[in-house]
Amino acid sequence: MSVIKVIDRIFYILIFIILIFTAGFFLGPKLFGYSSYEVKTASMSDVYPVGSLIYVKNVEPEQLQKDDIITFELNGLTVTHRITDIDFNNRVVSTKGDMNNTSDGITPFTAIKGKASDFCIPYLGHLSSVVSEPKNKKTAVIITVSIFIFLLTAQTIIKKNVKTR
Predict the structure, then answer these.
(1) Cα(73)–Cα(164) distance, integer angstroms
(2) Rounded Cα distance, 116 and 50, in Å
(3) Which of 12, 22, 69, 102 is least surrounded by CB atoms within 10 angstroms?
(4) pTM
C-alpha cells in the first residue's frame, strides 16, 4: 500500500472519529431519551466524581424506589441525590446526598427530572457545561469546523509533499 493511501486512511479515520464523538456526545443520549448534567458538588462523590457527566432518563415517579438516584430541581439548582423515602400519596420524595450529613427535605414529584444512570464520564461534565452555554455554542462549532479544515489541509499538504519526492 502506498504512503499516500496510508495517509488518506489515517486522516479519514481521524475525521470519522471526531464526527462520531461529536454526534455521540451531543445527540446520542437525546435519541435514547436521556438528558446530561454536570456533577458540580461532592455530595455524591462516592458514585459520581465532581466534574463528571451523568445521564438522566425521564421516568414516571411510580417507577422510582427507595435508594434510586434521581436528578431534580431544588431551590433553583439541579441536584442529583439518592431517594431516602417516597410518599406516593402526597407525591413527594425525600432525598440526601450520600456524602451529606443532612437530608434535602421533601421534593415534589413535579421537580424530578429523572433517574440518573449507573455510569458517568469523569471530567466531561465540565466540557459539557461550557459547550452548552449559549455564548459558547458558536465557539464549539467554530473549533470543530477548524479541526476538520486543519485535518483536510494537512492531508492535502502531506500528499503533495509525498508526490513531489
Answers:
(1) 62
(2) 15
(3) 102
(4) 0.72
